[in-house]
Amino acid sequence: MSEWLENHLPKVVLAPSFIAVLIFVYGFIGWTAWVSLTRSKLLPKYEIKGFVQYERLFDSPRWDTAINNLYIFGALFIVIAMVLGLALAILLDQKIRVEGFIRTIYLYPMALSMIVTGTAWKWILNPGLGIESTVRGWGFENFTFDWLVNPDFAIYTIVMAAVWQSSGFVMALFLAGLRSVDGEIIKAAQVDGIPTWRIYTAIIIPSMAPIFLSAFIVLAHLAIKSFDLVIALTGGGPGYATDLPATYMYAMAFSRGDIGQAAASAMIMMLVVFAIVVPYLYSELRAKND
Amino acid sequence: MKRFALATASSLAVLASTSVMAEPQAEVLHWWTSGGEAKSVAVLQEEFAANGGTWTDMPVAGGGGDAAMTALRARVLSGNAPTAVQLKGPAIQEWYEEGVLADISNVAEAEGWDKVLPASIAAHMKCEGTWCAAPVNVHRVDWIWANADVLAANGIEMPTTWDEFNAAAEKLQAAGVIPLAHGGQAWQDATVFETVVLGLGGPEFYKKALVELDPEALTSDTMVKVFDQMRTLRGFVDENFSGRDWNLATAMVMNGEAAFQIMGDWAKGEFLAAGKEPGKDFLCASTPGDGYLYNVDSFAMFDVEGDDKRAGQELLAKLIVAPKFQEVFNLNKGSIPARTDVALDKFDMCAKISAEDMATSSENGSLLPSYAHGMALRGAQAGAITDVVTAHFNSDMSSQEAVQQLADAVANSY
């Protein structure tokens, strides 16, 4: 008995959470996939009608906007947050005074909820209250900064707020990475008289590849499921210019009683996540098998 | 003591009339949780208790009813629907098609609802001929509110056509006043849009385009003109309008920063709460053109098990449409009674105009459901139209393009 327990204890302990994940994650992914093939409106129906919901989805100009916004927002957010985070980390790594204090300042936005960030930036960017009116108040009457209310630029205000929120966190990740690089190698390079920028580009940054990957994965999933920031900052507006797939799905499922359409958009969102995560998992698993 | 006696007497009367011995029970799902609205529901609650019923309150705030609808979905799917739910317009029919609504025709017939409710409003309360919901109030949507001092200072009368409105707005703009206070949220864009459709196209066109979704009407020249007028109106709002809440826009009219606002009569509540007087400080008139767009709140009755619950449902339905509740509730909420035989002595002048117009428009067939407030169309279709309206209003899309997108969006929404 005790031997059986010893052999099977890990499985017994893991079984409940395994079953829960199986039902509540994969089970409901399956359920959503099923519903996305039906004509469900107010309540879910289970009669399969083919791919109508997907056809409707790809015919909808609002979904086009949402997906394009996801590309713009995702790409800019990830790249800018990583570049800024890395720059901040390298600057902080110069053995400066009060580093702990400065680090806390940069990390602090991460402690705020996206709703707070969104609301604060809404006021900062509002042409009648924030930057524009302040600068005009200084006497620059022609100064305009109306991105928040300009449908062509509103999506970039979301990038700004999101970068502000997350780049400190990326900085912390990179800082840990910088510190984990073997000091002996750096000293050896310095002895050889190699300039500092070369030490960074040729030795330190390449050795941080795994950190880049984890930062990318964290930021990418933040971008894809972004919802609260959009709701707080622009409410999806002006018009639906800053809709993201998550806000589209919410509108369809909860405001319009169009559950089939919401399920179809959720499936597409999941495929986008898969497109990013699957290559990552594949490379991880292959590395272990080698 | 007198109140107690009255309560006992009336509860006896109810018991006698419905001949159901079980104590009436009702669980009511609603999202009237803000100040004036909560007060209005409390009136119903008290009256229900005074008639011997037990009221279980189920307020679900948030998202303009979205959160309540999510709660309702969960309750219905688990086979435990509330007794009565705040629902309106085609949503009632949608739930009826799911097979979950009750039949309250016996109450409606005993109380003679058919005689006291305007025909087009009564039609919303019926599911394939049987009564399944009780109307609470009528909000008029096609109102235009104005700051009396600003209009007087610029020598402007309340406009009766859209051309007059445009001329007045240009004059105001030249004088440095924001002509139209507006909040750039999709539903507010849609509210303005439907009043323009009604004003430029007339009641017949409105019905064809926004109730029957006739593709010809949607792509007609009139609709192009409607979008042209929307583009003109876009020029009359301040540059800072994006995302503004409607009550902030009302405040702009109140303090003279802006001259006009197009909004339903819930805006009146804001004026009154600030101590402004209708006719003196602010003016109310229907938006240019004929017709009347209504937004009727109602309670749909769900199929419930048990005599006590069914008795509660019937009592609730009876009380909701009874003149006493209709008067007290609507005085609190700023709307007008759905039944036409309630004395309006205590109501303000805007409410009286609204009631008068409702009666005349009901007779000549121009009493129409508001699309922007979920009375005319189902969620998916109304949402599809709103998407196009708000995209056009907030970009430089041409009217022709908007009309084409409108027809496509509607066709794609089924």
Q: Strand content of the residues of chain A, in percent? A: under 5%
Q: Biggest chain pair contact, residues each? A: A-B, 31 and 38 residues
CATH topology of the largest domain in chain B: D-Maltodextrin-Binding Protein, domain 2
Under CATH, the homologous superfamily of chain A reads MetI-like
Rg of chain A (CA only): 24 Å
Oligomer: heterodimer
Count the strands of chain B? 12
CATH architectural category of the largest domain in chain B: 3-Layer(aba) Sandwich
Largest beta sheet of chain B, briefly? 6 strands, mixed
CA(first)-CA(last) distance of chain B: 58 Å
Description:
Chain A: It is a multi-pass membrane protein. Chain A: Keywords: Cell membrane, Membrane, Transmembrane, Transmembrane helix, Transport. Chain A: This is Carbohydrate ABC transporter membrane protein 1, CUT1 family. The complex is a heterodimer of chains A (about 290) and B (about 425). By secondary structure, chain A is mainly alpha-helical. Chain A has one domain: MetI-like (MetI-like fold), CATH 1.10.3720. Chain A contains 13 helices and no strands. Chain A is flat. In chain B, strands 1, 2, 3, 6, 11 and 12 form a six-stranded mixed sheet that branches. Chain B has a four-stranded mixed sheet with strand order 8-9-7-10. Chain B is of the alpha/beta class. Chain B has 19 helices and twelve strands. Chain B has two domains: about 200 residues, Periplasmic binding protein-like II (D-Maltodextrin-Binding Protein, domain 2), CATH 3.40.190; about 200 residues, D-Maltodextrin-Binding Protein, domain 2, CATH 3.40.190. Classes of the chains: A mainly alpha (about 290), B alpha/beta (about 425). At the A-B interface, helix 12 of A face helix 3, helix 4, helix 18 and helix 19 of B.
Describe the protein's topology.
The complex is a heterodimer of chains A (290) and B (414).
Chain A (H helix, E strand, L loop, with lengths): L1 H34 L16 H8 L1 H32 L6 H9 L6 H12 L5 H7 L16 H27 L2 H9 L4 H12 L1 H16 L3 H6 L11 H11 L3 H31 L1
Helix pairs in contact in A: 1-13, 2-13, 3-7, 3-10, 4-7, 5-7, 7-10, 8-9, 10-13, 12-13
Chain B lengths: L1 H17 L6 E6 L4 H16 L3 E6 L6 H12 L6 E4 L2 H8 L7 H7 L1 H4 L2 H6 L1 E2 L2 E2 L1 E8 L2 E5 H6 L8 H13 L3 E4 L4 H26 L3 H4 L2 H14 L11 H9 L3 E5 L3 H8 L8 E5 L5 E10 L5 H15 L1 H11 L15 H16 L2 E3 L9 H15 L5 H13 L3
Parallel strand pairs in B: 1-2, 1-3, 8-9, 11-12
Antiparallel strand pairs in B: 3-11, 4-5, 6-11, 7-9, 7-10
Helix pairs in contact in B: 2-16, 10-12, 10-18, 12-19, 18-19
